[in-house]
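User: Can you model how flavin mononucleotide sits in this protein?
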Amino acid sequence: MDFDQVVRNRKMTRNFESRPIPEFVLAKIVSNAQRAPSAGHSQGTSLIILASPQETEEYWKATTTSDWRKNSRRSTLMDAPVVILVCCDPTAYTARYSLDDKIDSDLSRIESWPVPYWTVDASMCAMTILLTCTNEGLGACFLGMFRGEGELRQALSISDHLQLIGAICAGYPKLPDPPSRSALIPKVPIENFVRWRRGG
Ligand SMILES: Cc1cc2nc3c(=O)[nH]c(=O)nc-3n(C[C@H](O)[C@H](O)[C@H](O)COP(=O)(O)O)c2cc1C
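Assistant: Here's the modeled complex, given as structure tokens:
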């Protein structure tokens, strides 16, 4: 398998070249991301883009320990030249569904929503970013917001009304990039994944 195939077969990339992503590619990522769908076109998703070593360092300092930064085999993630924070604003949804054409849906209060579609929409936006990266020959990795959210909010002055969904590291992929332990877990059998409700 050549380099290109290795990279294409791996969905998440965790080792990056530090060379920057060209501005026109970043512009395409942003433009595609904005085309992701949203409930009622509420458009409550927003991005914070960190695209210099000084900026990405703020993310890593807030969300990891110095021990991880020095010793983790995954500290290669920090070489990614770009980190994109995906945010959403639930109040954009309640405001949108308070308008005349949606008011009958009874979704003008957060508690009325059966599914938090602000999270769903931000996730679709994140997937659009991951797919655009693949299309542009870049690698990317979605990282959950599991640690240091408070520190990150403070460092980047992120407003309280925004929820942080996760971060996407992006850049040119580099080998070696061993699969994560999670990626080694076999896929569930297809019959457990899909149930065909066919008549007959
Ligand atoms: C919500 C979510 C959170 C994730 N968080 C992390 C993370 O913190 N660190 C990481 O290395 N990968 C993270 N991943 C990537 C998954 O581990 C990865 O998609 C899974 O192992 C399958 O690997 P593959 O996408 O390379 O096939 C996350 C993925 C999702 C969807």
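A couple of observations from the model: The beta strands are 45-50, 82-88, 139-143, 163-171. The chain has a mean pLDDT of 94.
User: Helpful, thanks.
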